């Protein structure tokens, strides 16, 4: 960190505003410069203070979180982190992400207890990551779907029978750009891990399915992997692959391993894919903070598989792809708009 990040906290609860200020003050690299009770007040405060990051509730009087994100992105893009309770606001949170919010932190349901302090580390790290995002990288609105990419005619045997994708910050917007470009005759299954709070993945997969020619759904126990099926790991449970007694590859959901920083984990999925498919796996590591995916990419490479990473030019946060690149594990670095075609060339 080369500077102190200036943050505005937006929440209609005075208690939450107080606690979030206290949490963020634990980092010497973050300073809360103002708080607002609703979106209307927040718009004026952001214009006045020009903060580096905003944290924002969704359910507020006057102007709610979705309205604030929409209006603020039209005025001046700023990194916004949504703080919400998933069961009550999942659809609104996904809409806020479409409008330009870059990440979210799930509030504990018991706000009037010490439980809200359990998100301290996550919130601080996400604020620090958000504060170093180039404003040009913030997707201020969901782009029109790109044209579906045609399958290239390639002679000889195909190299890949499975595509696994790992993604985090900026992922909801990026996958809505990538997956709809894949044609309906896509000849391999796609399995994805995206770091999302519990309560979001089923709805997100359903919305992505509406925009795609492929079938997209949240993974369930025992799903059979088939060409043209896209499975999104369920938040809160690791997703692994295994062969059943008939030889079919099916999904398995589990809380273990407990020591993983993320659940689901990209590393866990990638390792499982390499064990089942050997060299016929393509791992794709895309925008996101942290290093989840590095160990998994090493497993895929050790079996002779391929690794693609998203290029820095299109990443909201060039964290996960950069650690894979720096480890010498990436076969190709590709900007988001070229990723679908690159995948089709090897599948």
Structure notes:
- The chain has 347 residues and is of the alpha/beta class.
- It has helices at residues 14-24, 39-49, 65-75, 86-99, 120-130, 171-178, 201-211, 266-277, 294-302, 320-326, 336-344; strands at residues 5-10, 30-36, 53-56, 80-84, 103-106, 162-167, 190-194, 215-218, 229-232, 238-243, 249-254, 281-285, 306-310, 332-334.
- A seven-stranded parallel beta sheet has the order 8-9-7-6-12-13-14, sandwiched between helices. The protein has a five-stranded parallel beta sheet with strand order 2-1-3-4-5, sandwiched between helices. Strands 10-11 form a two-stranded antiparallel ribbon.
- Helix 2 runs parallel beside helix 3, helix 3 (65-75) packs parallel to helix 4 and helix 8 (266-277) runs parallel beside helix 9 (294-302).
- The longest helix has 14 residues, at 86-99.
- The radius of gyration is 20 Å and the shape is globular.
The rough form would be described as: globular
Helices and strands, in order, run as EHEHEHEHEHEHEHEEEEHEHEHEH
Main sheet makeup: 7 strands, parallel
Low-confidence stretches: none
How much beta, percentage-wise? 15-25%
Report the strand count.
14
